[in-house]
Design goal:
By secondary structure, the protein is α+β, with helices and mostly antiparallel strands. It contains twelve helices and 18 strands. Helix 1 links the parallel strand 1 and strand 2.
């Protein structure tokens, strides 16, 4: 087992499989491969789950709104996986009750919503969490007294699961490592070349430590999410010089979330925006409320500017939230998250793009694109099944036991212990890795500013940073917070 983080490794390492991308999809593939006896390495150009996998709606769900588009198979599959992932990570995924208010004049009449809730329960089968219900307006107000009363005629109730997306992904990575996988974070795959005997040499650069790595594999899986088109072009064209650029398959979209103090009495809310008919959520998370999301189409591949929230997106969510929760919505926003969904290209509006996934083969280089967080195990199985067929190892079915993932360290530990654990066991290499993605320190009242100093001191000692590096890492975290807070202040000013 090799964990990248300062250790000196051979110039070239050989594997059955190299995975490019350390989000939940790539980590799920690595975990399944290692559990089935494959030698596997992951290359991630940033931190684990540093993209969309740390900026989701924090829900394991079937996709109630997908029923309206007739995607029953996706919903059934997602509900099955909701239960499976809940068993894998019971500390990181818990059931929550959601309330769906009915207002006079809604685009979807109450009978249609109740039919959808009934179908949602039915498709879940034995994996259903709790039966849905419908209540009149007075009962809905008793459950959530801050709902806007004007026009309220009742509400539906149903259950889904709320999860800690990034810490779940890190636990999947730890499980992969425990089974023999190698994971290189902050390492960018720059190209590929034939290595003889139908193998591929992947070249990668360490963005923090410097130097180049060469990994030889019998197959490569591109699981780069919204950047899948770019990584596919880079790998395929360098592996076969002169080859035409592969046609694009992605249609990424940005979605943001606002984090508030708790807005409800413990329920999640499923709401419909009056301005454009989009569904959005209020999700109870870590004693707070996550409000989102938006849908803004961005280019493939996304540029750095495409990852940043827009003032109008924040104002849109604030205005739609105020229609349903007029008093709580005036609370100050605590944080903003932004991520880019790895959607497959399809005709129609970006909001109608499919949430299913595809596996595409370019010789020994495979690309997995699309999908949703909840179904990461299904995506891993489909990708690895293609690898197994290519390597002649498909005689035996893949095994994926529902065994608990490694548990994270609890938040009651001192900051220095959390930082030490993050470096030693969770592949953290930057201050932001610890404060934003291994802990919830960034959600404390000071947004983790004091804790970041302690984290930087611990990491300097563990990773051998000099004083200049320690200060730079700390400044990077503070600068990111300052940018986020300036954006929120701008959005909260009256247009």
């Amino acid at each position: 087992m090799t964990i990248h983080g300062g250790a000196i490794l051979p110039r070239v390492n050989s594997y059955d499989l190299v995975v490019v991308g350390g989000g939940i999809t790539g980590l799920g593939i690595a975990r399944l491969a290692a559990r089935n006896g494959y030698t596997v390495a992951v290359i991630e150009r940033g931190d684990l789950a540093g993209g969309a996998s740390s900026a989701s709606s924090h829900m394991l769900h079937g996709g109630l709104r997908y029923l309206e588009h007739g995607r029953y198979r996706l919903v059934r599959e997602s509900l099955r996986e909701r239960a499976a992932v809940g068993h894998l990570a019971p500390d990181l995924a818990q059931p929550a009750r959601f309330l769906l208010p009915f207002y006079r004049g809604d685009r979807r009449p109450p009978w249609m919503v109740r039919t959808g809730l009934f179908l949602y329960d039915t498709l879940a089968g034995r994996a259903n969490l709790a039966p849905h219900a419908a209540v009149p307006a007075n009962a809905a107000m008793a459950l959530e007294p801050d709902l806007a009363p004007a026009g309220l005629i009742g509400a539906g109730l149903y259950s889904d699961m709320v999860m800690d997306d990034v810490r779940l992904a890190v636990s999947v990575a730890r499980d992969a490592i425990a089974s023999g996988a190698t994971i290189h974070t902050w390492t960018d795959a720059s190209g590929a070349a034939p290595a003889g005997d139908q193998r591929v040499e992947v070249r990668a650069r360490d963005a923090l430590g410097g130097g180049e790595r060469r990994l030889v594999a019998r197959a490569v899986v591109n699981a780069a999410g919204p950047w899948a088109d770019e990584v596919r072009r880079r790998l395929v064209c360098s592996f076969t010089p002169g080859a035409a650029d592969p046609p694009p398959i992605m249609r990424p979209s940005r979605g943001i979330h606002l984090i508030f103090p708790a807005l409800t009495r413990g329920h999640g809310l499923l709401l419909t925006a009056r301005s454009d008919g989009r569904v959005f959520f209020v999700v109870p998370f870590a004693g707070m409320s996550l409000v989102g999301t938006t849908e803004v189409e961005v280019p493939s591949p996304p540029a750095p500017r495409d990852l940043r929230p827009d003032v109008e997106e924040i104002r849109y969510l604030r205005a739609e939230l105020a229609r349903v929760l007029p008093r709580p919505s005036q609370a100050p926003v605590l944080a903003v998250t932004s991520g880019v969904r790895p959607l497959l290209a399809a005709p129609g509006g970006v909001g109608e793009a499919p949430r299913e996934h595809r596996v595409i083969e370019d010789g020994p280089i495979l690309t997995i694109a699309g999908g949703k967080y909840t179904t990461f195990r299904v995506m891993a199985h489909d990708a690895l099944a293609r690898v197994a067929a290519r390597l002649g190892r498909n005689a035996r079915p893949l095994v994926d036991p529902i065994a608990p993932l490694p548990r994270p360290l609890g938040p009651d530990h001192p900051v220095e212990k959390l930082a030490e654990f993050a470096v030693r066991s969770e592949l953290a290499r930057r201050v932001e890795d610890v404060v934003r993605r291994r802990t919830r320190l960034w959600l404390t009242p000071d947004r983790g500013r004091v804790a970041a100093g302690e984290v930087a001191t611990v990491m300097a000692k563990k990773l051998g940073w000099d004083e200049a590096r320690r200060r730079d890492e700390l400044q990077r975290y503070h600068d990111a917070l300052a940018d986020e807070e300036r954006l929120v202040r701008r959005a909260w000013e009256e247009p």
